[in-house]
């Protein structure tokens, strides 16, 4: 199979429809599409394959684009099928470094050498050998148009209060939220209060009973590794826990249905409780 005089092999099982019909002007599809599965992803991204597996990786479609007038100018394209939109957001949130959106997909990131976005169950990553944000964005836009999954963003993202939220800071952890295995999977976002930052977090469980068990485990952790406070701020109810953790500092967490909703800060004394109250009210 050839395009513009360049010959490349098409992997068995590859889905060319995931690629844009036409690359940006002055660029050609030079290699691919190739497919990587769980069996051989380590050959493609050796040091990162395990992280992708934790987020439900299914398969990766890989292609290479080049400038035929300067073959050293290259853009690598990876389209990862992560199984669902939650897992696609999760892996995107781990690689996005800050808020530099290019308004593509459900959320995106662009710098001189890379363009990242997630759309439905897909996480897409483009990397350029030379600084080329304009072509990266053009190619990302065309890839987005070839993806058919229109699933909305994970609804938990909307629970985070917007006031004080550091743009681009919300992450989804597939396990070990805040570094605690008993919290399992969940979301965290960073908030700014003057010169201080603190985090709101949302641990997701399968049932209220499992969330209650998680809260008990959190209590046991604080009693053995940290400190439990006797007083709970008014308005947070009987299923709340306050204390000090070795790594997060001051902690306030409560159960709401199948969630544990909390705030962690080096030291309470600003807007932490107000943001947590807003957060709890948003959780449905």
In words, what does this structure look like?
By secondary structure, the chain is of the alpha+beta class. It contains 6 helices and 15 strands. It has helices at about 40-45, 50-55, 85-95, 135-145, 210-225, 270-280; strands spanning about 1-5, 5, 30-35, 60-65, 70-80, 105-110, 115-120, 120-130, 170-175, 185-195, 195-205, 225-230, 240-245, 250-255, 260-265. The strands form 3 sheets. A 7-stranded antiparallel β-sheet has the order 9-10-11-15-14-13-12, sandwiched between helices. Strand 4 and strand 5 (about 70-80) form a beta hairpin. The longest helix is centred in the C-terminal third of the chain and has 18 residues, at about 210-225. It is elongated, with a radius of gyration of 22 Å. The model is unreliable at about 1-10 (pLDDT under 50).
Give a brief rundown of this model:
This protein has 284 residues and is an alpha+beta fold.
Distance between the termini: 52 Å
Overall pLDDT level: 93
Give the CA-based shape: elongated
The largest sheet, given as strand count, sense and whether it forms a barrel, is: 7 strands, antiparallel
Q: Strand pairing plus helix content: what structural class?
A: alpha+beta
User: What is the string of SSEs from the N terminus onward?
Assistant: EEEHHEEHEEEHEEEHEEEEH
Report Rg: 22 Å
**Number of helices, where a helix is a run of at least 4 consecutive DSSP H or I residues:** 6
Give the % helix: 10-25%
The count of DSSP E runs of length 2 or more, i.e. the number of strands, is 15
Stretches where pLDDT is under 50 for at least 5 consecutive residues are: 1-10
**Widest beta sheet: strand line-up:** 9-10-11-15-14-13-12
Strand percentage, roughly?
25-35%
């Amino acid at each position: 199979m050839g395009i513009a005089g360049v010959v490349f092999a098409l992997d068995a099982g590859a889905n060319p429809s995931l690629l844009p019909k036409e690359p940006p002007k002055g660029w050609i599809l030079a290699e691919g599409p190739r497919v990587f599965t769980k069996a051989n992803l380590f050959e493609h991204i050796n040091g990162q394959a395990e992280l992708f597996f934790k987020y439900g990786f299914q398969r990766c479609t890989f292609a290479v684009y080049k400038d035929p007038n300067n073959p050293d100018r290259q853009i690598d394209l990876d389209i990862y099928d992560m199984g669902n939109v939650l897992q696609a957001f999760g892996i995107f949130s781990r690689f996005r470094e800050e808020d530099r959106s290019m308004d593509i997909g459900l959320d995106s990131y662009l710098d001189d050498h890379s363009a990242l976005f997630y759309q439905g169950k897909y996480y897409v990553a483009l990397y350029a050998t030379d600084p080329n944000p304009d072509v990266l964005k053009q190619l990302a836009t065309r890839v987005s148009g070839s993806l058919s999954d229109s699933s909305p963003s994970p609804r938990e993202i909307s629970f985070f209060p917007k006031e004080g939220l550091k743009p681009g800071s919300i992450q989804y952890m597939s396990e070990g939220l805040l570094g605690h295995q008993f919290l399992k999977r969940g979301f965290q976002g960073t908030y700014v209060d003057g010169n201080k930052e603190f985090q709101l977090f949302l641990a997701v469980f399968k049932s209220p009973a499992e969330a209650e068990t998680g809260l008990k485990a959190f209590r046991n952790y604080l009693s053995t590794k940290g400190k439990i406070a006797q007083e709970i701020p008014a308005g947070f109810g009987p299923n709340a826990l306050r204390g000090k953790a070795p790594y997060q500092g001051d902690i306030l967490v409560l159960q709401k249905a199948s969630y544990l909703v909390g705030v962690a800060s080096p030291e309470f004394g600003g807007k932490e409780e107000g943001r947590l109250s807003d957060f709890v009210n948003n959780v449905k």
